[in-house]
Hints:
55% of the residues lie in helices and 0% in strands. The chain is built from 16 helices and no strands. It is globular. The mean pLDDT is 90.
Amino acid sequence: MMDSIDTFIDELLPLLDAQSPASPTPLQNHVMQNLDHCLPFGEHAPSRARLHPGLKSGSVHSGDILSVIRSLLIFRGITFDTRRASNSDGWYSHRSQWEYYRGPYSEDNENEFVNARAYGPTDGRSTKNFSTFWDAAPGIQEFLFDDKMKVLHNRGFSETIKFLLARKDLPSFGRLSSFLLVEDLVYTGLVQSPSLEEFAREVGNLKKGAGRALQRMVPGHPSLSQSDIAQAFISVFEYLDNRLSQETKQLIGFDMFFVEHALCKLIRTIRVHGLF
């Protein structure tokens, strides 16, 4: 059933430039209704695409590290997949930038600034968490750097997820949002990129959409253990790595994070695309 993910990616490639095909397929129509929620090319979806370059690469000046951490906490904890997100590049180095963006708090427009179900049911996802995230960022910076804030500790992927999950000052951050935040920190160069095997184990531990997609791809849909899911993920990654052209891989930003993201979107749109 490997060709299901292959077909899924191929059918949605025309949406990379955010243009609607002349005669969109049912799957393309469905995905275009909410690109953040359904597009497998995560770096091209609106919420990620509009972010400040410093939040997507390791080219940030050392003096901006705290702003990077704060901005990514706000992105994953508040603004992802929201109506107002297109009005900002998500970079917050001063509280006043957030105050200008959000304006006075009001229940009447709260859902324009925060999507309570961006990562499924969550506890307390709210713009009121801004100050909590802002104040939590220095503790994360201290974990990532030495005591003089000059040398990275080269924290590992799994190690950093465990650190975030143990904190009590990150309201609404569960395993999935912590997992995604650490991916963001890898892209910015603040956390070591995991090996394929380490990342696959975390996909198995996550027990989310990618795991469900991998289970559906096995004939008979048997119940898979975490280690089975990890091995299945490696198999899918290697299949796509060999199958996709270099041009396509460069275009879509192919890496292990992309594969996990695409599997999540595959299972999310299963009722529309009918590939299984």
